[in-house]
Design brief:
The protein is mainly alpha-helical and 268 residues long. It has helices at 6-23, 32-44, 48-58, 62-65, 68-71, 105-117, 123-139, 168-181, 185-196, 201-206, 211-226, 238-266, and strands at 87-88, 146-147, 158-161, 164-167, 235-236. It has one domain (25-266): P1 Nuclease (Orthogonal Bundle). A hairpin with a 2-residue loop joins strand 3 and strand 4 (164-167). The protein is globular. 45% of the residues are buried.
């Protein structure tokens, strides 16, 4: 676990929490650091064919491209991407059935994959699809992106984060990552690969399943871990970050490996 020592954390965290809570968007996804960690891990585990295609389409790294879908959210021409950042499941059913008419995260991923496999798609269309896939594969592994419409994936659940107002969604998007893992995405990626992927066993385990399987996995985490985590109150801080850091680390590493696997399947 990458949690800083108590002596160095508290002053840094209070300043950081003030700055971040003031600027957080209620519709945020994994923060830029987390998405870049995922992109870097994916890059490190790509096969040669996928690596060549990524380089040709993007002209940059997966880590740098991973934040694009959030960066364009204020641009009206990309409003059609908004529903693809999340999927809501009915608590009474507890399983994914279908996206609403406007779309959801599952559509966003499946349509991006379809476009990347389409020999008739233009280079620019395929580049956009790749940027979508990189980002939404990350969002899929943040449990509150696969949760409940009634509270907008925790965006309408108010908490205190180191004494400052925040939403539960923001805490899981950014707060835990910043406090427990750090701010250097390249350093976090390297540490997670050393901690979780060195022997190859987890990578082999995670290179399996389908997008819909992964939806159900994230949903179970949201209802069995994230929502119940407020049972002891909504004043959250260092102890909360330490408790849930390992899960966040695993989800980031898992997302990176699965993104690499999806790209390897597209470009065998």
């Amino acid at each position: 676990m990458l949690l800083p020592r108590p002596s160095s954390v508290r002053p840094f965290v209070l300043v950081l929490a003030l700055a971040l809570c003031a600027s957080v968007s209620p519709l945020a996804a994994w923060g830029p650091t987390a998405h870049r960690v995922i992109g870097q891990i994916a890059t490190d585990h790509l096969g040669d064919a996928a690596r060549r295609e990524v380089r040709a389409l993007l002209g940059t790294s997966l880590a740098e491209a991973s934040t694009w879908a959030d960066e364009v959210r204020d641009d009206p021409q990309w409003e059609w991407l908004d529903p693809y950042h999340f999927v809501n499941l009915d608590p009474a059913v507890g399983r994914f059935e279908r996206c609403p008419q406007r779309g959801c995260l599952v559509d966003g991923l499946e349509r991006a994959i379809e476009r990347l496999r389409d020999p008739g798609a233009s280079r620019s269309e395929r580049a956009v699809a790749l940027r979508q896939l990189v980002h939404f594969a990350g969002d899929l592994h943040q449990p509150l992106h696969v949760s409940h419409a009634e509270d907008r994936g925790g965006n309408q659940i108010d908490v205190e984060w180191f004494g400052q107002p925040a939403s539960l969604h923001w805490v899981w998007d950014t707060g835990i990552v910043r406090v427990a893992l750090g701010r250097s995405w390249s350093g976090i990626a390297a540490q997670l690969e050393a901690d979780q992927l060195a022997d190859g066993a987890r990578e082999r385990e995670w290179r399996s399943g389908t997008i819909r399987d992964w939806v159900h996995e994230s949903y179970r985490l949201s209802v069995e871990v994230v929502y119940p985590s407020l049972a002891d109150g909504r004043r959250l801080g260092r102890e909360y970050a330490a408790t849930h850091a390992k899960l966040v680390e695993t989800q980031l590493a898992k997302a990176g490996i699965r993104l690499a696997w999806l790209l390897d399947q597209i470009w065998r």
